[in-house]
Structures are given as structure tokens and as C-alpha cells.
Amino acid sequence: MVRWLLSAIKGKYDFSHGFKGGGFSYEQRFSLVNVKLKWAKDGALDSVVAGERDLKAACILVSIICSVPRCCLPVYHLSRCRGQLGLPHDLKISTFMRRYPTVFDEFHVLDSGGTSVPWFRLTTDALNLHHEELSLVQQYQGDIVDRLRKLLMLTKDRTLPLQTVDQLRWDMGLPYDYHHSLIPYFPELFILVRLPDDRVGVTLQSWDDSLAMSQLEKNAAFQQRNESIRDGTLAFPIGFTRGFGLKRKCIEWLEEWQRLPYTSPYSDASNLDPRTDVSEKRIVGVFHELLHLTILKKTERQNVSNLRKPLALPQKFTKVFERHPGIFYISKKSDTQTVVLREAYDRNQLMKKHPLADIRERYSRMMRKGLLDRSKGLYKQHTGASGTHDLLSNVGGRYNSGFKSEGESDNNLLSEYESDDETYTSH
């Protein structure tokens, strides 16, 4: 159970009212107060993250398979994409896909040497769900485009490398092939550019003031917190798991920290001293907004590691996640660290669901059913012999003649763009 401090201890320790001044807060403006809050396990939010790695990998594989005309690929082609999947290095792609027979259907095709090669296609149910997903993406294209625009508006040059966007595309609900299916259709908004490090990036052509309002500012306006808006001292919703326990020193610091000026993540913050709590509050605001741009209000910590320079953040900027466990929860499930926005969840339930979140839940249920049925022996390995000759003539020939993957194009910068098979780090 989450104990929300905005209501639970309002009055005694009111973290939400406007800045009134005072000695303690005055000092915070010019120094970073050394207060450490402990990490505490949150089983409800851990359950939100559990299974996410397999779900993400499966959905990416679905998109890759459906990117080719016949919607089927040999396993050796899929193995080339494993860098995008985030699976353990010792786990074979074929082994992973066989775990979920309700999603992936395996069959075999003889190569030119007579060797049987495993191929994978989608089951009928998975293909139908994928088509539903594509329809939703089309229906909510405006929302998805605005998410990408706002992400670029958070950066100082309105520009990000495609590899950095790739790392966030799943979380933000961007199509897998957004650089082909989305960006080229909005030339008035986006342009591909050559970056100084010779990578390919995407730039937002122009600023849009109507999008330059953070979710925290929207919430304050909706709740008619006029005094806080006028004074520029917006406070973040804060909550902790039951039994967390805050020392009085931490409560006093947090109360005063909430009263500090709020700097919009869309405004120029170059005048802020990075050694101050005011600057730290701006950093918290940037990631608070970034997580609100995601579908499930969470992302892996490593996904934001490349954003220091584009977002004009100081060194060790991700330390704010540890210093503010009432705003962010760091889950250590699935051998990684995932940052979850606490306010977005009521225990393990997302309070405001994007339609794409429902699609992902249905994929997850489909995968769980396949895993359970397979454990009961309901699925037997088969070669898919029926239709093999047709596939040899219609698919094999086309495949062997060479088709281009989603990351390739002959006519523009995308011809030199390689997808995120490796992790790019900030400099």
C-alpha cells in the first residue's frame, strides 16, 4: 500500500503548498543538501516490471517478422536482431520463441544444401492482435507524434540520435519502424540530420508553445492550484510504501525542497547552478515529464543514460532517482534497473491507461497461456511440413535474393543508419 504524503500528513508536514521563504529553504537555493533516503522494496511495483523483458522482446520480434512480405523469417535472420531484444546473452532466440507457442509458430525449410532451417511466423491470434495494434497506432498517430515532438523539445537542440530514440521507442509507443513509417510522413515537423559524431539524428523543425507545458503544470492548472502556479513553486506528488519510515531531518528537507521554485523542463535552465537543490528539482522535473511521455510510465535506467548532453544535465544526473524514492521507484527485477513513476500507479495498476497498454496486456496474457500450455505438454515440436514446398519456392527464393531490413534505404540518410544492436553511451 502506498502512503501518499500529499494527503496522509497534510497539515503537519504539508509538501504541497507554495514557497514562503525562510532560512532553511534560502540555503537550499545555493547548496545541495546531503540527505540520503533508503531504497525499500515495493512488491506491487516490482510485479509491474516482472515479465516486461520477455514481453518487450516478443513484441519486437512480432514487429520484425511482420516487416517482411510473407511475415516469416529464418531464425538466423532473427538472431541478428538480438541486440535490440535485451535478452540474456546465453539464451538462444529460438529457445526464447519456443517458450511462447501461442505467439510464434515454428516450421522448417530446407536450404540449398538440404539442411533443415528453423523459420518462425506468427500464430493466427498473434497476427490478429498485431493488426489491432497497427490500427491503434494509426488511430492515435497524432498522440504518438506529439510524444516524439515533446521528447525532442526537452533537448537543448531539439535533436536526438536515432539510436537514442530507438531505446525509448517501446516505452513511448512509437512504431518499431518509426523512422520509415512515421518521420517521413511529417516533413514539416521532422528532418533527419547528420550529427557531428557522424551518426544520423532526428531534429524537430520548429518549437510549439502549445506542447511546452509539463504534466505537472497541467495537473496544477486542473486542480486550480493558482497560488503555486503564480509563485512558480509546484510540488511533486510523493508517496512511499507502507512502513518506509522517514527521519525528521528528511521530512524537513523534503518539505522545504517541495517549496523551491519549479523550473519547467521545456525552459532554458542554463542559469541554474548544478550544485543546488533548485537545479536538482529541475532534473527531477525533466524525468517526471519524460516518464509521463511513456505508455506505462516507466523505462529502464540505461535508456536515459545517453540523455545527459542532449538534456543539458550535470554529471551523475541519475542520482535523483535514489534521492527521491517518493517520486521514482527503482525496480531491480529482470537483471536491470527500471525507473517507475510512483504517482502513475495504484499498487500495481496503471491509473490512466493508454489504449496501447491494453494491447500489451493482451500480448502478455497470450504469452502466459502459451508458457503454461507448453509446460503441460500441449504443444509438441513440429516441422510445419504442410506448405513447406510453397514456402521454399515463394519465400526462400525471395529471401535468398536479398531483401532489405527495416533499417535500410537506398535514397537517404537511413541507408547508413544501423539500428541499436549495440548500446551507445554519452560522451
Automatic annotation (TrEMBL):
Protein name per the record: PORR domain-containing protein
Any Pfam family the entry gives: PORR
Q: Where is the composition biased (Acidic residues)?
A: 417-427
Molecular function (Gene Ontology), one example: RNA binding
Classification lineage: Eukaryota, Viridiplantae, Streptophyta, Embryophyta, Tracheophyta
Report the residue ranges that make up the PORR domain in this protein. 41-370
Please name the source species: Escallonia rubra
Q: Region (Disordered) spans which residues?
A: 402-427
